[in-house]
């Protein structure tokens, strides 16, 4: 009898399991595997008519259309790069600023070829769904090719090219932008769940619901002074809590006591295309002022650069747009190599407010982390250009648009200092540059402090300071649980130009404190929101950047705590956000359990009570199954069952 029941419940569980594993696709209006004519899928892209004109005129499913589109994007990008190369060979007919802008385009097209090749490899190798992290990787890369294209286009436009460059280069740039946007839309349609990208992941981690504070700084330091470090090829430094894999350590010191005297020399010996599993190539940069323009190329992967502290190890430069550089090239420190980590370093651009755009750090490195670093500049200090980035316990100083770009980026426990700009200017802390509604990018500021720097605080009259302004149409910025000082104007946010982007942008505030955090006098744009904990949770490190997959290996401390103030519990049916749950008022209603799930739960409950009367085994097995459920509905159910004393 017990065996039969076991078998029956086993079957039921498999069925249930299948149903819920398949549930993300149920959320689509259109099953991705279903063949449809091109105009049906094109409706979901920002450019339906361009989409229809290049997709093959036959029925296929979303996956096939996406593959086709990404492949087409790749061939168009090769084509575009050849065009740029041709132009650059005829330098004599070009102005200095045109050459500079074209070089940026050449570089960015090279990155796009890599990103498209990698994306195509992933989606060509699968017939259907992908794991969450892979979906996020591809969405990130396809978001970045649009950003790179935009950067190329912006650079060319501000170089005010002559007629011929304008027509021959800018036209395909605009044309390819549409194609990239369609590729991203089709990929999103086919693979990205309707639910906020990180939501499934977040719910999966919710049961931890605790702070993970991994302090690796001290142990890396110990590693540095441990002579055995450089002797063994792979050293696993561990304090029992976290592990940082170190492949090699070199020291940079200006007094000649290290392996090198300049940072660029140290970077040159770092291995090419190293894998994360080999561990970090650590460059320890001793205290000193390094007047170097540092560039970490794409093949220098998993570099970790550690200084002696903010104001001790300083990397400085003074390139600016007024001095003839593009914004992109003005950076004192630029990084593209994925997996980059920096700690305890000050990065500066000293060009000053009158030199306009002058970047201290430009970061286009995927899965990059800056911990305990300082970024000092005026206009455009920190260019969070593209891909996924995390900043923890950093100080960022600047005036106009001083944190700008189109990465998916989270700032945790940072200090944002507004400085005194030029007369007549105002400060915008952020100028987020999202251009496409399907990009997974945005700037999330969590548990930070926004204050005036000394020069602004002591100035008479000073200048107005805003939380952000929309550099591009789909600009997205969130401030949560942060301290906002009186330096921020009561309206909070500033227009870019008239009503540009005001209804397409997404600006949100959640649970901020301080005299500048009062939202009563804030702008009333359609895209501005004061959000609740459930929405804010989408922009935490764990949800927005799926950080639990990659930050731990850096050893950098981070908070994966939920934004929610109280505990969360499941509620039944359609209930209001934030409303107390009927059965227990200490639980806030942030998870909804549908009536269908409730019926399911009752069936399972009955089943359990029968089965568990016989032996304890099914419980163990069922518990194992539950822990595997990624669907939030099951987290809710499991919690409900726990409350009912099922286990
Ligand atoms: C696509 O094919 C169908 C039937 O094969 C035809 O009726 C239609 O005109 C075609 N559309 C285009 C845009 O070529
Ligand atoms: C794409 O996948 C198909 C079938 O799996 C394979 O034959 C083809 O070589 C792949 N294309 C590329 C460019 O990898
Ligand atoms: C524009 O893009 C389409 C594909 O989307 C391509 O076939 C066409 O050649 C492109 N035109 C130019 C001028 O690049
Ligand atoms: C946050 O994620 C939830 C669940 O995916 C979604 O319903 C909600 O719209 C998201 N909120 C925002 C502001 O993106
Ligand atoms: C960073 O610098 C501070 C003080 O300068 C020091 O206490 C800390 O150990 C350093 N961290 C690392 C990782 O070197
Ligand atoms: C760096 O210097 C240390 C100590 O002087 C030495 O053991 C190590 O081999 C050097 N590493 C490189 C890459 O030169
Ligand atoms: C990395 O590749 C470059 C050529 O692209 C080569 O010159 C250099 O020696 C390589 N570095 C290492 C450490 O292998
Ligand atoms: C670095 O120096 C500046 C100027 O002296 C000072 O305001 C700041 O607090 C210092 N930062 C740290 C982390 O010591
Ligand atoms: C930039 O810094 C260099 C080196 O310190 C200096 O020689 C140069 O005059 C500076 N340029 C400007 C415009 O400040
Ligand atoms: C928020 O930041 C402050 C100061 O940076 C820090 O002391 C505090 O622990 C942080 N809170 C959380 C929850 O991480």
Automatic annotation (TrEMBL):
Tell me where in this chain the Pectinesterase inhibitor domain is found. Answer: 33-186
One Gene Ontology biological process: pectin catabolic process
User: Signal sequence: where?
Assistant: 1-27
Catalytic reactions of this protein = [(1->4)-alpha-D-galacturonosyl methyl ester](n) + n H2O = [(1->4)-alpha-D-galacturonosyl](n) + n methanol + n H(+)
| One GO MF term attached to the UniProt entry | pectinesterase activity
Output the Pfam families linked to this UniProt entry. Pectinesterase, PMEI
Taxonomic superkingdom? Eukaryota
Gene3D superfamilies listed in its UniProt record: Invertase/pectin methylesterase inhibitor family protein, Single-stranded right-handed beta-helix, Pectin lyase-like
Which pathway or pathways does this protein act in? Glycan metabolism; pectin degradation; 2-dehydro-3-deoxy-D-gluconate from pectin: step 1/5
Keyword Disulfide bond listed? The answer is yes
- Annotated active site residues, numbered on this chain, are 401
Give the Enzyme Commission number.
Answer: 3.1.1.11
Where does it reside?
Answer: Secreted, Cell wall
Q: Which UniProt keywords apply?
A: Aspartyl esterase, Cell wall, Cell wall biogenesis/degradation, Disulfide bond, Glycoprotein, Hydrolase, Secreted, Signal
What family does the database annotate? Answer: In the N-terminal section; belongs to the PMEI family.
User: What job does this protein perform?
Assistant: Acts in the modification of cell walls via demethylesterification of cell wall pectin.
- Kindly provide the name given to this protein in its UniProt entry: Pectinesterase
Species annotation: Ficus carica
